[in-house]
Amino acid sequence: MGRAIAILAILTCCVVTTALAQDYSLQPIRITSNVPVKVSIGGGPAVSSPIYRAADGAWKPLDVEQAGGAAAFTQPADAMATTLVLLDKPAWLQLPDDEPPAIAGIRVDDVAVEPGEEVKLGNVPRAPQSVVIAISDEKNPLALSRAVVSLNGRELPASGGAVTMSQSQDGRQVDVKVTIPDLPQAAHTLSVTLPDASPALNTVRTVLSFSTAPMLANAGFEEADSAGRPLHWACSTWSADAETKAEFKIVDGGRTGKALLIEGIAGSLNMVCGQAVDLVPGRTYVLSGYQKSTVAAGYASVIGQAAGKQDQYASMPRLPQAEDWTPFSWEVTAKEDNTGFNLYLRTGGQGKIWFDDVSLELKQ
Ligand SMILES: [Ca+2]
Ligand SMILES: [Ca+2]
């Protein structure tokens, strides 16, 4: 059975290893019993420095009888419930080892990013082409044959792309290089799982997420709801009074197709159309688009939250009045330690402003 599984693993395995790589996999025997069971293993198993794990986690020598091509032992009294047995302890194995490997470094398109169990790259103009994850273990080699690399929940290379691994001579350091295939405009996750080659298979996992979707939905203002307001944008008046009258509409005559019209008509007028944006704190973004207007009142703001309250409140200078479609551009850096960012297109007072072909992108 164990052999059949091993063959299947070789056939389906995605991993290309270098000539240096050794097979560090072990064949530990897991025994679960509350009474001392006698275990006999036939087929002439290799027996060398046999050990077992006691209930307190310590590894101890195991008495093994060998006769007639079989190895037999009794589950020791201090290893009730569940224990692991290793009949053939390789010279490289260091025990005890209860620590999973560590993520020593991550490089995305050759640029170092902060390593961790969760790495959020946020919105990117295009998918990375290569991701290299350096993994190391203090005590034992890494079990490359048990590595799992998945893109959007599917193992590579079934999901496209490729994985190569290079392992250090002692086996304790591995660079996992993932070549990312062409991806649709959407949110993506890449996960890498790798255990050490100890009997417990202490495992490290890291998940990188990134999105190649446009940061703003319906940024060309072609889609309206049944009330004629822009889909994916929340439009409202802030600090309105009883006289406030304003309109938010998708209208014809855009720079391309349709456009967003915000019109202040009467009363106190502070008008916004906004949507949530997935900004990474510390990164700089460029908002660009086109506007025309009857008054010099339009602008945009990014508002972030910290500790559950509004914190970052960044606004661009007022846009000039413009009879024809006029481009604008504004750079904004997402404040550290903020989350829950929203971008607002806005205007104040009476008058009309049209927005079209807006985009928000990470600054290169
Ligand atoms: Ca370890
Ligand atoms: Ca348009």
CATH architecture of the largest domain: Sandwich
The fourth-level CATH homologous superfamily of the largest domain is Galactose-binding domain-like
Number of domains: 3
Instruction: Tell me the CATH topology of the largest domain.
Output: Jelly Rolls
| Poorly predicted parts | 1-20
> For the record, what CATH class of the largest domain applies?
Mainly Beta
* β-sheet strand percentage: over 45%
Radius of gyration: 30 Å
Indicate the structural class.
mainly beta
Whole-number mean pLDDT = 91
Hetero groups: calcium ion
Q: Termini distance?
A: 53 Å
The profile of the biggest β sheet is: 6 strands, mixed
Number of helices: 1
**Strand order in space, largest sheet:** 1-15-16-12-9-10
Classify the helix fraction into a percent range: under 10%
Number of E-state strands: 28
The rough form would be described as elongated
* Helix and strand sequence: HEEEEEEEEEEEEEEEEEEEEEEEEEEEE
